[in-house]
Model the fold of this input.
Amino acid sequence: MSSILIYSVFFAIGCIFGSFIMSLVWRIYTKQFSCTTRSVCTNCAVRISWYHNIPIMSFLLLRGACHMCKKPISSYYIMTEIVAGLLLVLLALVHTVPLVGVTIVFVRDVIILFFLLFVFIYDARYMQIITGATIIPAMVLFLASLYFGWHAWQSMVLAALVGGGFFLIQYLISKGKWIGGGDIRLGVFMGVILGWPNILCALFLAYISGALIGVLCIILRKKQLASEIAFGTYLAAATAVTLFWGEQIIQWYISLL
Done:
């Protein structure tokens, strides 16, 4: 099988994952989670036929609107599908899947990105980070890392304490005004994913990107200085970047000193 075909397959699978993530986000938020019920339009609640639920294609063919009520479908859907597809292709490139095949580390990174993308979308839409998307996968990943030898337990524990403790201090000082409890839990998850000292790189990237985008939004008058921001989105994105390029970023920074 040619590399182009392999990457195309991974893109299609990623788009399916993205569609599932968006469905999961809506179902959990509306407390309508069920493994047996089919997807419905979020406006008119009419069941969506399988041929109207094909990632990307259905959105384009329906021109971004429900086939029944004709109300617009959120662009979050097609954007998430495309991003998820591209992320899976990126993973395949990083892990050279066409040459070495699917490995356990590749599967691990797919699962990590799945949860990070879920956190990103859920926080972006509803300004909330749910416990099930952080603490539970953190515990499972911690045990898996010990079993497969991905990180030493000392590295994960120290990074989790730094990640979670960093936000816990801010939470206590501000009495919950600066940081929410979800950010603390996400900090712990980040620590387990990245280990020490890569957690520092992720925190640095999150705050720098958050500051830059925040200033840009103020300049464009899309936000005021006192506006709340979904900081979990920056943390999730920074974790993904650090997962792949954290070592290189740290080495580059050290070389500047």
